[in-house]
Design brief:
244 residues, 4-stranded antiparallel sheet, 0% helix
């Protein structure tokens, strides 16, 4: 059905949004599919899709407010109170204290203390491009300062400080750049390569390759990196087994 976005929740349920505004899910690794109720009624087009760690499904589309389903796509609510107009979905994370963080493609960060019903802006690094939260509730944000910079907050977003910068050869949207295997995080810097860190304080260059863009990892610890080289029609994919 012309899939546009694919997400998976913490229990292994797959969700696929299509170009016609529909959403389907699979609980058996994609063998069979169940249609969900449409996130945005009377809308036929692609939407941005995120499934947070609490299994909530979040959706936005151009010209439509943030939607959320808390029951696997059966019912949907509009949860945009406090958000600036025309905010598009980037990332959503829930902290261990229950606070939700929402980062928009418009480079804004918000938090919610009432399960995502209302939102309040959070002061964050300028022109932020990506949000990530570690298992220790450390809030990680990226922006284009000094080429590409990583910021970290250890006090639930009250303060951010820069921990790493590097100059990539190009910049782009950051869809999939963080992966974790055991106690190590792997960070894709589009246009530069892959970094490796265990604490987001010190980093080492795991693989310097300036055509890389997105980073994925399978259940066996195999890193999968997508190339972005027009000479190869964007078809090259790299695989590497992380040493056990």
């Amino acid at each position: 059905e012309s899939p546009y976005a694919v997400e998976i929740d913490s229990e292994g349920t797959l969700y696929v949004g299509n170009w016609s505004g529909g959403l389907s899910k699979s609980t058996d690794n994609g063998r069979t599919w169940i249609p969900c109720n449409k996130p945005i009624q009377n809308y036929s087009g692609y939407f941005y899709l995120v499934v947070s760690s609490d299994k909530y499904i979040w959706v936005t589309a151009n010209g439509y407010a943030l939607r959320c389903s808390r029951d696997g796509g059966e019912t949907w609510t509009i949860d945009s109170i406090g958000l600036a107009p025309k905010e598009l979905l980037g990332d959503v994370f829930r902290l261990s204290n229950g606070t939700l963080l929402f980062h928009s493609l418009n480079c804004n960060l918000y938090k919610s203390e009432d399960d995502g019903k209302t939102w309040a802006p959070v002061q964050s690094p300028d022109c932020s491009t990506k949000l990530f939260v570690t298992d220790k509730d450390e809030i990680i944000m990226c922006n284009g300062e000094r080429g590409f910079s990583i910021y970290k907050s250890t006090d639930l977003g009250n303060n951010f400080y820069r921990v790493y910068s590097v100059w990539p050869q190009f910049s782009t949207l950051m869809d999939h750049i963080f992966q974790k295997y055991k106690d190590v995080y792997y960070v894709m810097v589009p246009g530069y390569g892959i970094l490796k860190t265990s604490d987001f304080n010190t980093f080492e260059v795991y693989w310097h390759n300036t055509i890389l863009n997105n980073l994925f990892m399978d259940h066996n610890g195999v890193l999968i990196a997508k190339g972005s080289n027009w000479n190869e029609n964007w078809t090259k994919v790299y695989y590497k087994q992380i040493s056990k």
